[in-house]
Amino acid sequence: TSSTPSPSLVSSPSNSSGEITSANVEVIGHIVENDVFGDLSFLMGGVAMASVIADEDTVRVVYFERSKLDILLKLNSRLAAGFYKYLAKRLYRRYVKAIQISQSPLRES
To answer: At what angle do helices 66-75 and 77-102 cross, to 10 degrees?
Structure first.
């Protein structure tokens, strides 16, 4: 097994102060090294539906502001093509995995 920290992807409606607490967090997945999150909200122009909470202090996250990423992609068409192709492949793999899980005979009803 790897010793690399694995941040948790969580569904977490924040409390009235906007704070995420253990009482309102449901872990819905884990993110692995070099993974991307927020791709659907970026593509659809919406807001993120989940938050990421690091399991350890050594996790490093690279954050891109939507407006600045939009400018960068508009200025560099090769970068934009590669970026959107990468996102398309990720979404396809996620879709195939979801189909496989939904068709699994061990799936709970």
So the answer is: 120
Helix and strand element counts for the chain (H, E): 3, 3
pLDDT digits (tens, 9 = 90+) for 83-95: 999 999 989 998 9
What's the alpha-carbon Rg for the chain, to the nearest Å?
16
Task: Report the predicted TM-score, pTM, of the whole model to 2 decimal places.
Answer: 0.64
Amino acid at 96: V
DSSP track, 42-95? HHHT---SSEEE-SSTT-------HHHHHHHHHH-HHHHHHHHHHHHHHHHHHH
Altogether, the residues listed in the chain come to a count of 109
